Amino acid sequence: MRIAFLSHAYHEVTGSEEFLIDILRRLGTVERYFYRREQGQTGWVEGFKPREFDCVVIFQVYECFQYVNADHPNIVFIPMYDDARIWEEPAYRREIFDSTKTLCFSSTLYRELAVRNPVSAHFQYYPDPQLYPQAQDYGAPRGYYWRRTNEIDHQVIKRLTAGFAFERFTLHDVPDPGVSNKDEVNGPLVNTAHYTVTSWFPSEESHLHNLSQHNIYFAPRLREGIGFGFLKAMSMGLCVVAPNTATHNEYIAQGCTGVLYRPDKPDAVDLRRYRERGCRARDSMERGRRRWEARSEELLEFFAIPRNAFQRRQFVVGSWLEESHGTAPAEKSNVSARLPSVAVVTVCLNAREDIEKTIRSVAAQDYPGLDHVIFDGGSTDGTVDVIRKYERALAFWKSCPDGGAYPARQLSLNQVKSDWVLFMNAGDFFFSADALSRVFADVPRTAGVVYGHRIHRNAAGADELHFAADFEFSWSRLQAGEFDFECFAGFPGLQATAIRTRLLRELQFDPLFRFAAGHEWLARAWRCGVEFFHADEIISVYLGDRLSGGRFERCKQEWCAIALRYGLRKAALRFRTRAHADIRGAIDLEFGNRSDRFAERFVDTAVGRTLSRMPGAGALAKTAAMLYVSVAKVFYFQFPGHREFLQFRKGGSVPTYLSEARGLAEPEDWGVWSEGKRVELVFRRWLPAAFTLILHARAFGPNASAAIPVTVGGITRQMAMKGKRRKKYQLDFSGHGDDSTIMTFSIPYPVAPAELSPGTSSDRRQLGLGFVSMRIEPKGRTAFSRLFGFASTGSTPQIAASSTAPGAPPDPT
Length: 813
Prior knowledge:
The structure is a single chain. This protein is α/β, with parallel strands linked by helices. Helix content is about 30%, strand content about 25%. Strands 15, 16, 17, 18, 19, 20, 21, 22 and 23 form a 9-stranded mixed beta sheet that branches. β15 (about 340-350), α12 and β16 (about 370-375) form a beta-alpha-beta unit. α23 runs antiparallel to α25. The model is unreliable at about 315-330, about 545-550, about 640-645 and about 780-813 (pLDDT under 50).
C-alpha cells in the first residue's frame, strides 16, 4: 500500500507525527510532503498526483485540501483541537471535506466533527512511558513551567501557586515561534528557595533529563492538539497542572492524576498531593498505552478501507462484546482468588432490546465469584423472556412491580451475598473483560467505596469519556460553594462504582430522591467518614441516563437539594444561577422532608402523643411545616448571608459577599495586619439592619490598650483592646440604617516595627490591628435560625493572600 502523508514543515523539526508514521509503515510505504503555511505551496505540489496513492493523509494542514480531488476514494484528514475551525477558513472546500474520513485524537473535537463528517473515528493516543526517564525525587516540590505562549503567562502561574512554597522552580523560557515577549519575567515567579531560567537544550535527551529533576509540571498552552508536552510529563510521573480544556481534561482525572483549573479563573490550586498524583499519572499512561496498542489494528483498518466501503460508520469502544456471539462465562483461572466477592445488580423495566447486552457483558468478565442479580419491575415487552434465556448465568432474578429504580436496588440487597455491589442498568456494559479484576487489584482493605471512569454512548453511537474526579476535590468544591454542572460531572456514576454491601444496607438510598439518590448517597457516605478509593480505571459504558433524561428539571432540583443539605448556603444559590435550577422547589423538597422527619420523631415522644390526640392536630402540624419551609425561603432569598466566617489568613479566596478589603497588609499564616490609619471592608450587599460583629483580633504596639472605633452607617462602636494576644470581641450594631455596605476600622496608633525596635527590624509598615477571623450574626433570627437548622457547614471562606511580608512580628498565638 502506498501512502502520501501531508503535514506542516515544522513537524519535520518537532517530529510530532512520527508515532503515526511508524504505524502507517505497517501498511506499506509512506511518502512525506511538507507544507509551509507562511510561504504557500512549495515545489512538491506541481508533481504531486494524489491518485497514484492508495491513501492520502492530511495531518492538520487544511490548506492541503486544494491539492486533492473529491473523487479520491481514500483521504484521511487529521485535524487538531487547537486549530480545528477548518470550515471557517478561506481554503476550506466542503466537497473535499465531505469525501474524507476524519480521524480525531480529541474526543471533544470528535463530537463536533462527527455531525459534519459521519465517517469519523476517535483514538486516544498514549506515549510509551518506558521511553522517558521517571521523576527522580518527590521529597520536596519542584516546579517546571515552559513559557510557550502568552495565554498562560507568569501572572497565571503566580495565581495558581499562591500560598505554596517550592524547593526548586525552573522557568524554561522558550516561546513558540511568533510569540511576543509581552510580559518580561523579572525575578522568581513563585515562592522558592532555588529559581532557574533555562533556554534551548542541546538535545531532547538533555531536556528530558532536566525535566525529570522536577515533580510538578505547569501545562504551557490553553488548548492542545494531541498534547505531547503534558503527556510526556505525565508519563514521567510529574503532577500536571493544566487548564480544564480539551485535550487536558481528556487525560487528567481531576485531583487523581493531576490538577485542572478554570482558565477564566486561575485561582490557587492544592498541590500538597503532588507525589501521589504524579505516580498515578504515570500509571494511567501505562494503562492507556496498552489500550492504544490494543487498538492499533483497528486504527490501521481505518486508514486502509476506502470511505465508500465502510460498514461501520463510527469506531466505538466495546466492539469485543458487540461482535461476540458466545454467552459462556470467560475463563477466570488467571485471576487471583484473593479478590473480594462482587455482585452486579441490574434493575430494569421493559428493556428487551438492552438487557441481553448487559447479561453477556457480566458473564464475559474474568472475575472469580462474580454474581449477577436482576430485578425486573414487571416488564410486558418480552424482557422476562430474554432473562429466562440466560437464567443459568444469573445468581438470582425476579420480575414484579418494585416502586422504582432505587427502591428496587435497595430491595435487591436481600438477595446479595457478596462483599461488594455494583449497579448496572440494562444496556450498560463493562469496558473490557478484565474491568473488575483491574479495579479490585489494589483496593485498600479499609475502603468502602471504589470508583472509576465511565463512557457515555449517545443515541448516535458516539462515545464520550466521563472522568470521575477525586471525591475529596468534589466535596471541597461543594463545601466552598463552587457548585455547578462540572462538579456533578465529576461525581462517580453508579455504573462505575462498587460499594460494600453492608454500607448499602446501613446507609440506605434516600427515597426523597428519585433520580439523584446515588449522588446523595455518596455525599452522605463521605460525610459519615466512609473511605473512598479512586481506581483510575475505565469501568463501564452506559447508554445515557434514561431515568433522568426526560425529567431534567427534576434532576436539577434534586441536585440543588443536595447542595442545600451538604454545602454552604451559597452552594445552592450558585447552582441555581449556573444551572437555572428551581431552588424554591428544592427548598420545598429538602425542608419539607426535614419537617416530616421532625414530626415523626416528635410524635414518638410523650408530649407528641398527647398533642396528636387534640382536635386540629393534623392541620396544626401541616401549618407548622409550611411555616418552616417559608422561613427557609426567606433565609435563602432575603438575608445577604454573612453568617459564614471570614478568615484573613494566607492562601485562601475572597468570599462572594465581600467586594473589597482596603487598608490591609499582605496576609500571613495567622491572619493579616492593618496597614495605615483605616481599614474598610466593602460588602456586595447591604449589611443586616441589626447584627452582632464577632471578631477575633490582636493588637500591635500601643494599640494593645487602646479603643478602636468601628463604624457602620451612622453608628460607631468602640472596641476596647485586651492586650496583644488574640482575643474575641463582640460589637452590637442596631439601627445603623438599611443601606450600609461599608465597615470601617479606625486605627488610633499605627506604628512600624522598625520604630519600636530600631536596629532589629527593618519593617516600615504602619501596623495596628491584626485581623484573624470575623463573622456577622444578624440579630432577631440567630436563635430562630439555629432552632431550624440554618447553621453553616463545611469549610470557611478565606480572603485572598500572597506571600508573608518580611519582618512582621511573630504570631503570639
